[in-house]
């Protein structure tokens, strides 16, 4: 049995070497460290991947390659190279598995290319038109500031954790821009938003779930990712709010970002653009 164990280990090493050689010769890629089959370099990243990348850059240079699970990745650690790279539209697309983080796979976070350019251009214009510099939205922001100041006064100089109230305040500013009204900080809806804001970065910390084929899907189906459950609740809440706007008959297209977007969808329903019901 002992010989079989050694033999199996030797076979695994040989297969790993062959795997790395085959993948490194497929394309003209920068140098990089040894990768394991299936999991790639994930087991070696540690708790602070950015420090691992820094050490690797000392050996392989400011641009090197590795595999995160089954996904090839190019790591850039030099600011000037990074700035030059991200000025090229060819590399700005999101990873194909990025949309898994969105419960229905839709939204601005899952589009690329011309769709992304069109949606981004519209969003920037709409926010400027309806929110920034407009008295209605400024009133919402001022209300949030006043409420937060009142919260501070209630503490009577005693220490407290301002994180959740501050997150709620910032989230409410964004929510009021999107839907045209504020939420009470203690409301169930605000609780859903805050949970999602806490869960979203945690979801991305679970790198292996996205990069090993089928693993994230399994976690979703089995309900093993509470963070994704929070994202589903967040998505459902926003869908309900959008449906309310769809059913609203007396609103104008300038009341909120959502109403303007719905108006734009209706106006361009007969034109081939990225507003044909893909996102709302």
Automatic annotation (TrEMBL):
The keyword Metal-binding applies. One of its GO terms (cellular component) is cytoplasm. The keyword Transmembrane applies. The chain crosses the membrane at residues 6-22. GO terms for molecular function: heme binding; iron ion binding; oxidoreductase activity, acting on paired donors, with incorporation or reduction of molecular oxygen, reduced flavin or flavoprotein as one donor, and incorporation of one atom of oxygen; steroid hydroxylase activity. It comes from the Eukaryota. Keywords: Iron, Membrane, Metal-binding, Monooxygenase, Oxidoreductase, Transmembrane, Transmembrane helix. InterPro entries: Cyt_P450 (IPR001128), Cyt_P450_E_grp-I (IPR002401), Cyt_P450_sf (IPR036396), Cytochrome_P450_fam2 (IPR050182). GO terms for biological process: organic acid metabolic process; xenobiotic metabolic process. Belongs to the cytochrome P450 family. This is Cytochrome P450 18a1. It comes from Nephila pilipes. The lineage of its organism: Eukaryota, Metazoa, Ecdysozoa, Arthropoda, Chelicerata.
């Amino acid at each position: 049995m002992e010989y079989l164990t050694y033999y199996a280990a030797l076979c695994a090493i040989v297969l790993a070497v062959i795997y790395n050689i085959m993948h490194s010769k497929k394309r003209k890629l920068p140098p990089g460290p040894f990768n394991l089959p299936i999991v790639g370099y994930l087991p070696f990243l540690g708790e602070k991947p950015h420090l691992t990348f820094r050490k690797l850059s000392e050996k392989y240079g400011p641009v090197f390659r590795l595999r995160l699970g089954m996904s090839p990745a190019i790591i850039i650690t030099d600011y000037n190279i990074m700035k030059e790279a991200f000025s090229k539209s060819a590399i700005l697309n999101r990873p194909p598995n990025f949309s898994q983080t969105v419960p229905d796979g839709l939204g601005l976070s899952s589009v690329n290319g011309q769709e992304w350019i069109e949606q981004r251009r519209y969003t920037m214009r709409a926010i400027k038109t309806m929110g920034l510099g407009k008295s209605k939205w400024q009133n919402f922001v001022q209300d949030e500031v006043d409420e937060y100041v009142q919260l501070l006064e209630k503490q009577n100089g005693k220490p407290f954790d301002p994180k959740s109230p501050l997150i709620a305040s910032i989230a409410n500013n964004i929510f009021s821009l999107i839907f045209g009204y504020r939420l009470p900080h203690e409301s169930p809806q605000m609780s859903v938003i805050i949970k999602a804001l806490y869960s979203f970065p945690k979801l991305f910390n679970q790198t292996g779930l996205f990069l090993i084929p089928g693993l994230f899907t399994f976690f979703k189906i089995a309900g093993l990712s509470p963070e994704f459950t929070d994202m589903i609740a967040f998505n459902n809440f926003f869908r309900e709010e959008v449906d309310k706007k769809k059913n609203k008959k007396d609103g104008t297209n300038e009341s909120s970002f959502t109403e303007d977007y719905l108006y734009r969808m209706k106006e361009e329903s007969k034109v081939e653009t990225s507003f044909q019901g893909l996102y709302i």
